[in-house]
Amino acid sequence: MNTSPRILAAATHPARRLAVLAAAALALGGVGAALIHGAARADEKAAPATAVKAALTVTAATPQSSTLPVVLAANGSLHAWQEASVGAEVNGLRLAEVRANVGDVVRRGQVLATFASETVQAEVAQARAALAEAQATAVEAQANAERARSLQASGALSAQQIAQLLTGEQTASARVEAARATLRAAEVRLAQTTLRAPDDGVISARSATVGAVVGAGTELFRLIRQGRLEWRAEVPSADLASLKPGQAVRLRPAGLGAEDAPIAGRVRMVAPTVDPATRNGLVYVDLVGPRGPAKAGMFARGEFDLGSGQGLTLPQSAVLLRDGFHVVLRIGADNRVVPVKVTVGARVGDRIAITAGLDAAARVVASGGAFLAEGDTVRVVDAAPERAAAPTRPAPPAAR
């Protein structure tokens, strides 16, 4: 069969192919009709191949201006507010009993330990006897002095004798006072054989051992006064001016779970000096209210409450952590997503502050970004009025 060159040239143009085939069908009959039907099915299959399939259906979120708390984060360690050293005041006595141990909560005046007091009790008895003797001598000297005064005018006694009797009265009186002082010293020494807590608090260390003979000044217990703890925060010198006594602080010591409420604190004092090596200054924060697992010596992170201010926020689900950076997936005009690094700030409820890296007009993937890669195309749907709908994957095909 011969076909004209003009017909063949027209058939090579896509727009004229059907018309040529229709003309050819008149000449070729059933064979031409089959060719037309096959070409139409091929065109229908080729047309949708150019469309890009969406990887995920998502809702878009835009940064919103919100009132955010202004905080200053810092690190530091927990310390005892004040520690009292409780030691022996008597020298060379044996520890007879120890009544307190590490962790015990004690009250002011509570007995912590006792020393063997037999020797000191003997000293007290001796001092009392010496006082009684001095008092008896003083009574006799006073009576002699009274008689000398009564006979002074009669001349029965010489002036020298009268002076001796009067001096004897004064000497006896002084000996009584000396004996009283000796007795008081012995009684104080006896009282020191009982070691008592100087204040309310918690025993943090103990070195007392029953049977040990210790010298005066030896530390036997260490006491956290009133059980008070403080957080000593290391703050850069440039930020110290923003901190004032009385400001509220939130602490999270090691061991406090993420679901647990932070420990409340309050700034007591800002140190007057700065460490020349680190250029950091210490801020002393008193812990108030329940302390939870906080203990002296622990590391803790904290935030100083500096007030509030305006800032941009996004849902926390929109911010991802990739390779150590905070990232959001920005939706372009062609619905392709592009990762953008951002700097985040405080978290308020289910939203997080964006401090840098994103403008207010940007559209980002509200949730489900973990399933997307750079350049993926998404289908964006409107969020529900009250709550943004969670992104969903296309439904899998039904099983046959």
Folded structure, characterized:
- By secondary structure, this protein is α+β, with helices and mostly antiparallel strands.
- The protein has 4 domains: about 5-50, no CATH class; about 55-70 and about 310-380, conserved putative lor/sdh protein from methanococcus maripaludis s2 fold; about 70-80 and about 230-300, Beta Barrel (Elongation Factor Tu (Ef-tu), domain 3); about 85-225, Beta Barrel (OB fold (Dihydrolipoamide Acetyltransferase, E2P)).
- The protein is built from 5 helices and 21 strands.
- It has helices at about 5-10, 15-30, 30-45, 120-150, 160-190, and strands spanning about 55-60, 65-80, 85, 95-100, 105, 110-115, 195, 200-205, 215, 220-225, 230-235, 250-255, 265-275, 280-285, 300-315, 320, 325-330, 335-350, 350-355, 365, 380.
- It has a 6-stranded antiparallel beta barrel with strand order 2-11-14-13-12-15. Strands 3-10-8-5 form a 4-stranded antiparallel sheet, with no helix packed on it.
- α2 packs antiparallel against α3 (about 30-45) and α4 (about 120-150) runs antiparallel to α5 (about 160-190).
- It is rod-shaped.
- About 20% of the residues are buried.
- Helix proportion: 25-40%
Average per-residue pLDDT, rounded, comes to 82
The total tally of domains equals 4
Q: Quick one: overall form?
A: rod-shaped
Low-confidence stretches: 1-37, 42-50, 385-400
Strand content: 35-45%
Count of DSSP H/I helices: 5
Class of secondary structure makeup: alpha+beta
H and E string = HHHEEEEEEHHEEEEEEEEEEEEEEE
C-alpha Rg (nearest Å): 48 Å
What is the level-2 CATH architecture name of the largest domain?
Beta Barrel
- Give the CATH topology of the largest domain: OB fold (Dihydrolipoamide Acetyltransferase, E2P)
